[in-house]
Amino acid sequence: MSYQDELYHLAREIDATVVTVEQAATGAARDRVTWSLPGELGSVTVTGAGELVDVSVDVAAMKDYSAPSLSRQLLLGIQRAEETAARRFETTIAAVQDEERLI
């Protein structure tokens, strides 16, 4: 095999690997993580990209919280969901990198 053929095949392999990583990243960014708030207060949902897509609060349970406490619980829930989504995203990409021997 000539040097040019080797370079061509290497470039094709790199292109295929890039596509695989891009697909994994796109899928992981779309995945959703839902975090349950304490005391059956509700839940928050974020995407793997960290976008807040849903906040559900049980009105009856909400009455057990003061406004500052409720806001803290919502903020903490959003932060936990974002952290979980980020870890899941990183794990997905790391798995693809390991599989594709990119590390």
From TrEMBL:
InterPro entries: YbaB-like_sf. It comes from the Bacteria. This is YbaB/EbfC family DNA-binding protein. It comes from Amycolatopsis coloradensis.
